[in-house]
Design brief:
The complex is a heterotrimer of chains A (191), B (189) and C (182). Chain A has 191 residues and is mostly beta strands. Chain A has a domain of 117 residues: Jelly Rolls (Sandwich), CATH 2.60.120. Chain A is built from no helices and 12 strands. Chain B is mainly β and 189 residues long. Helices cover 0% and strands 43% of the residues of chain B. In chain B, the strands form 2 sheets. In chain B, strands 2, 3, 4, 5, 7, 8, 9, 10 and 12 form a 9-stranded antiparallel sheet that branches. In chain B, strands 6-11 form a two-stranded parallel ribbon. Chain C is mainly beta and 182 residues long. Chain C has a single domain, classed as Jelly Rolls (Sandwich), CATH 2.60.120. In chain C, strands 1, 3, 4, 6, 7, 8, 9 and 11 form an 8-stranded antiparallel sheet that branches. Chain C has a two-stranded parallel sheet with strand order 5-10. The radius of gyration of chain C is 28 Å and the shape is elongated. The chains are: A mainly beta (191), B mainly beta (189), C mainly beta (182). Chains A and B meet through strand 2, strand 3, strand 4, strand 5 and strand 11 of A and strand 1 and strand 10 of B. Strand 3 of chain A pairs parallel with strand 1 of chain B.
C-alpha cells in the first residue's frame, strides 16, 4: 500500500495597503502669460496756448522795445512712462510776427526765448531759439538726461529768457511761436 | 504687440490762431504735446527826443533895423527829433501858427503888421516832406503817409518867412513874436 | 518500497502542485488584494495667453491693469481620482512682470483669483497678499471618485497699488492639486 503525503502550499497573493503617500497625489499647472507694451503719456495741460501778452513797453526809455516779460509756466500733470530709460525733449520755435512782411531797418519781427521741461530726470531739457530779426533760423531742440526708472510725475514747461535780435523795435501785430514737449525711449545711437 | 493708444499731438501753425488738432500716433512708447506761444505788440508811435538844444527856434531880431522891414535872411538851425518811430504804417502831419506879436494886442496900424508867416517842413519821415505855410488857406502837403513801419530822425526846419499882409508892411515893434510848430505822428491800425 | 517526500515551496503566487496528482483532493485558494488611493492628471499642463494687459488711451486709467482681458479666461485639465475622500485644491500664483516697480505709483505684479471645477465641485484661491514663492493653497474641495475635466477659470485680477503696470512680460499660474485622501 502506498501512502502519499501531499503538501499543498497555499501561496497568498500579498498586496500591501499602504497609507496614501504624497506621490499618489498629482498636480497640474495652468500658466497665465501676458505682456505690457512700453507706454508714455503726457498729461493734459490746463492750457494749450502760452500767451506772453503785450511784449513791448508803451512808454519810458524802452518804448517800442521788448518789455520785461515774466517767465510763463505750464504743467503736464500725471505724465508717465512705464519703462526704464526714457527721455524728455523740448523743441522750440521762436515767435515771429503773423505779418510776413520783412521788417524795416531798425525793426525786428521775432522774439527768441528759452523753453525748459523739468521734473523728469536729473538734467532738464532746454532749448533756446536763435533766429535773426527777420525770424530766419531753425527750431531748436534740447533733451534732458535719461530717466532710468519707470516714472510718474507732473512735468513742468517754463518759457523764459525772452530776447529780441539786436534789441530792436518790434513791428506791431500778433506774434506766434510754438513749443513741443516729447516723452520717448532713450535714443540709442546707431552702431 | 502694437497697441493703438490715443495721444494728443497738437500742431502749432505759424501765423494761425486755429484750434489745436489732436492726432493719434502709432507708437505708444512716445507722447508729444505742442503748445502755441502767442504775444502781441501794439501799434506805437513815439516822437523821439529833441536834439540840438531846446525846443525853440530862436530867430533873433526879425527886422532890418535900417528899413524896418522883415529881414530877408531869417533862419534858425533845424531841430531834429531823434529816435522817432511808428511800429505800423503811419501819417506825419505838421501844423504851425504864425509868429504873432505878444505884447502889442491892438490891431496894427496901416503900413504895419503884427505877425510873420513862415513855412515849417518836417522831413526824413516820408519821401515828400510834410510842410505847412501859415499864410496859405489850404495846406495839402501838411499830411504825408508811409505804408511801412519806420524808425528814424525827423528834421523840422523853418523857411519862407514873410510879413503877414505883404512884404512892404513893417512888423510892429515887440520884444516877443511867438509862433509854434507841431509835428504829429499817427499810426494806422 | 519507496517513500516520496514532497516539499513544496510557497515562493510565488502559483500554487505548488505535486508531481503527480492525488486522487480526488480539493483545496481552496483565496485571492485578495488592495488598490491604493490615487489621483492623476492625464492632461496636466495648459497655458492661458492674453495680449496687452494694460489699458490704452491717455486718461487717468491709462497704463493700469485691464482686468477684463484676464477675467473669465478658462482652460481645461483632465484627471481622475479613485478614492472617495479625494480632494482638490487650487493655488493661484500672481503674474510677475520683468520690470520692477520703482514706487507705489506702479505695479509689476498682477494678483489672480481662480476656480477649478471637477466632478461638479469647486475649489478656489486668490494670490493677493501672499509672499512671492510662499504661496498658499485655498480650501480643499472634496471631489471624490471622478474621472474627467477639471475646468480652471480666472475669476479676478488686481494689482497691489492700483498703479501703472511696468512694461515687460508677465507670467503667473493657477496650480491644481488632486489628492486621494484628506
Amino acid at each position: 500500500m502506498k501512502t502519499m503525503s501531499l503538501i499543498v502550499a497555499t501561496a497568498l497573493l500579498v498586496g500591501a495597503a499602504p497609507a496614501a503617500l504624497a506621490q499618489d497625489s498629482d498636480s497640474a499647472k495652468v500658466s497665465v502669460t501676458g505682456q505690457v507694451a512700453k507706454l508714455c503719456v503726457l498729461g493734459t495741460p490746463s492750457n494749450a496756448v502760452i500767451d506772453l501778452g503785450q511784449m513791448v513797453d508803451t512808454s519810458g526809455a524802452r518804448v517800442g522795445k521788448r518789455a520785461a516779460i515774466g517767465n510763463k509756466s505750464v504743467t503736464l500733470p500725471g505724465s508717465f512712462c512705464n519703462f526704464a530709460n526714457s527721455v524728455v525733449t523740448v523743441n522750440a520755435t521762436a515767435l515771429t510776427a503773423d505779418d510776413a512782411t520783412p521788417a524795416q531797418s531798425g525793426f525786428a519781427r521775432a522774439v527768441n526765448f528759452t523753453a525748459t521741461a523739468s521734473n523728469w530726470a536729473s538734467t532738464n531739457a532746454v532749448a533756446t531759439t536763435t533766429v535773426d530779426r527777420q525770424g530766419a533760423g531753425a527750431a531748436t531742440t534740447g533733451s534732458g538726461s535719461v530717466q532710468s526708472l519707470p516714472k510718474l510725475a507732473d512735468i513742468g514747461l517754463t518759457l523764459s529768457g525772452y530776447d529780441v535780435p539786436g534789441d530792436l523795435l518790434l513791428v506791431s501785430g500778433g506774434y506766434t511761436g510754438s513749443v513741443t514737449v516729447t516723452l520717448a525711449p532713450e535714443a540709442v545711437p546707431a552702431p | 504687440m502694437i497697441r493703438k493708444s490715443s495721444l494728443a499731438l497738437a500742431l502749432a501753425l505759424l501765423g494761425s490762431t486755429a484750434a489745436q488738432a489732436q492726432t493719434e500716433t502709432a507708437a505708444s512708447n512716445t507722447a508729444s504735446r505742442a503748445f502755441q506761444v502767442t504775444g502781441n505788440v501794439p501799434v506805437i508811435c513815439a516822437g523821439g527826443a529833441l536834439s540840438g538844444g531846446d525846443s525853440t527856434f530862436a530867430l533873433g531880431v526879425l527886422v532890418n533895423t535900417t528899413t524896418g522891414l522883415l529881414r530877408t535872411d531869417l533862419s534858425a538851425p533845424d531841430k531834429v527829433l531823434t529816435g522817432a518811430f511808428c511800429s505800423a504804417l503811419s501819417t506825419i502831419s505838421v501844423a504851425a501858427t504864425r509868429m504873432t506879436a505878444q505884447n502889442v494886442t491892438t490891431a496894427a496900424p496901416a503900413g504895419f503888421s503884427n505877425s510873420v508867416d513862415f513855412t515849417a517842413t518836417a522831413s526824413g519821415w516820408t519821401t515828400t516832406p510834410a510842410s505847412v505855410n501859415t499864410a496859405a488857406s489850404t495846406n495839402p502837403a501838411a499830411t504825408q503817409s508811409r505804408t511801412t513801419p519806420f524808425s528814424g530822425n525827423i528834421t523840422v526846419g523853418l523857411s519862407n518867412f514873410a510879413t503877414t499882409g505883404g512884404t512892404t508892411l513893417r512888423p510892429v515893434a515887440d520884444t516877443s513874436y511867438l509862433g509854434s510848430v507841431t509835428v504829429t505822428l499817427t499810426a494806422a491800425n | 518500497m519507496k517513500k516520496l517526500v514532497l516539499a513544496a515551496l510557497a515562493a510565488s503566487a502559483a500554487i505548488s502542485t505535486p508531481a503527480f496528482a492525488a486522487a480526488n483532493d480539493t483545496g481552496t485558494v483565496g485571492v485578495s488584494g488592495t488598490v491604493a488611493g490615487r489621483c492623476l492628471f492625464t492632461t496636466n499642463s495648459q497655458t492661458i495667453t492674453v495680449g496687452e494687459l494694460a489699458k490704452s488711451g491717455s486718461d487717468a486709467n491709462a497704463g493700469k491693469l485691464d482686468s477684463s482681458v484676464l477675467v473669465n479666461q478658462t482652460k481645461t485639465l483632465v484627471g481622475w481620482c479613485n478614492k472617495t475622500a479625494s480632494t482638490m485644491t487650487v493655488t493661484a500664483k500672481p503674474m510677475l512682470g520683468t520690470t520692477a516697480a520703482p514706487n507705489t505709483s506702479f505695479d509689476s505684479r498682477i494678483d489672480l483669483t481662480a476656480s477649478a471645477v471637477a466632478n461638479s465641485q469647486t475649489a478656489t484661491d486668490g494670490s493677493a497678499g501672499e509672499t512671492v514663492n510662499s504661496y498658499t493653497a485655498g480650501s480643499p474641495a472634496t471631489v471624490g471618485i471622478f474621472s474627467g475635466n477639471v475646468v480652471v477659470t480666472l475669476t479676478g485680477a488686481s494689482t497691489p497699488n492700483n498703479g501703472i503696470l511696468t512694461e515687460g512680460t508677465y507670467t503667473g499660474s493657477v496650480d491644481v492639486t488632486l489628492a486621494p485622501a484628506v
